[in-house]
Write a structure and sequence with these properties.
181 residues, alpha/beta, 6 helices, 31% helix
């Protein structure tokens, strides 16, 4: 299912919609103050928060995969020490889920996606490049990163994004939980 009209996002959550045709989705983890300014940036389709590594990630997968314009998921903000949804999103992008629908390599509490079908996980992993800037809360730095993402092509070829996840991720500046490079 694909939609970028009035029926998108398809699942309720803690988010603000920007330009539904834009290529960037932002997950501000638990940093509520980042949502409004990031959703207002050109190139951002949606900016939201996530608290858990199960229901919260389920909502992200459903809303991202029903919008074919989204090519990047930028993770930023303060991580939840217990649930670790940021780390779990990175693990999901890199490793997928096992037969029990547990996110492989996720360190947080209960990172299981019982209502997500394996093909939805595959679509998410093919459609978006997850960029881990966990800990970054500086709006200027985030705006610069988002600007560089929106200028990338991110077009589809044979149903898959044209970017190569691991090689590009290594070329990006990543932040530790303390926010330093």
């Amino acid at each position: 299912m694909s939609s970028t009209g009035s029926s998108w996002p398809v699942v309720a959550g803690t988010y603000k919609v920007g330009d539904p045709k834009a290529p960037v989705a932002v997950c501000a983890l638990t940093s509520e103050r980042l949502m409004d300014p990031l959703a207002g940036l050109p190139g951002v389709a949606i900016a939201g928060m996530v608290y858990t590594a199960n229901l919260g990630i389920t909502r992200i997968i459903l809303n991202v995969t029903t919008n074919p314009s989204i090519r990047f998921l930028l993770i930023c903000g303060k991580e939840s020490a217990l649930f670790q949804p940021g780390q779990s999103l990175v693990a999901l992008a890199e490793n997928g889920v096992d037969d029990a629908k547990r996110i492989i390599g996720a360190a947080g509490y209960d990172p299981v996606l019982p209502t997500i079908a394996p093909d939805q996980v595959d679509q998410f992993r093919k459609q978006v490049e997850v960029l881990d800037w966990t800990g970054e809360e500086d709006l200027q730095a985030l705006e610069e990163r988002e600007e560089s993402l929106r200028s990338q092509p991110g077009t589809l070829q044979n149903g898959e994004a044209t970017n190569i996840k691991n090689s590009r991720r290594r070329g990006l500046r990543q932040y530790s939980a303390g926010g330093s490079a």
